């Protein structure tokens, strides 16, 4: 069973890395969008709205993506 624990730890680390990568990409996208809206002086769209839609898009990808892989990444094992 010791080999199984190592595989579980490796898998958990991979999922954590992907989660962190997605959060960082959303943050970079949000900052870049805010900068672009300020440069172009677009006042009709607020940065918060863009961030909400980016989050909704990622949520949509989670829903329609490969179900088992993505949902396994999101479900934490309390044990």
What order do the SSEs take from the amino end to the carboxyl end, as H and E?
HHH
Count of helical regions: 3
Q: Helicity range of the residues?
A: over 70%
The total beta strand count reads 0
The number of domains is 1
Looking at the structure, what is the overall shape?
Answer: elongated
Helix-strand category? mainly alpha
Instruction: Report the sheet-strand fraction.
Output: under 5%
Task: Give the C-alpha Rg.
Answer: 17 Å
| Termini Cα gap | 16 Å
Largest sheet: none
Q: What is the mean predicted local confidence, pLDDT?
A: 77
Any low-confidence stretches, pLDDT <50, length ≥5?
Answer: none
3D architecture notes:
Keywords: Membrane, Transmembrane, Transmembrane helix. The chain is an all-alpha fold and 79 residues long. It has one domain. It contains 3 helices and no strands. Helix 1 packs antiparallel against helix 2. The protein is elongated and about 55 Å long. The chain starts with a helix and ends in a 5-residue tail after the last helix. The relative contact order is 0.09.
């Amino acid at each position: 069973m010791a080999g199984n624990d190592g595989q579980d730890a490796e898998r958990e680390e991979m999922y954590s890395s992907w989660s962190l990568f997605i959060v960082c990409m959303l943050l970079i996208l949000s900052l870049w969008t805010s900068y672009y809206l300020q440069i172009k002086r677009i006042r009709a769209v607020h940065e918060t709205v863009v961030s909400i839609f980016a989050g909704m898009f990622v949520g949509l990808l989670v829903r329609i993506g490969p179900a088992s892989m993505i949902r396994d990444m999101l479900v934490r094992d309390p044990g």
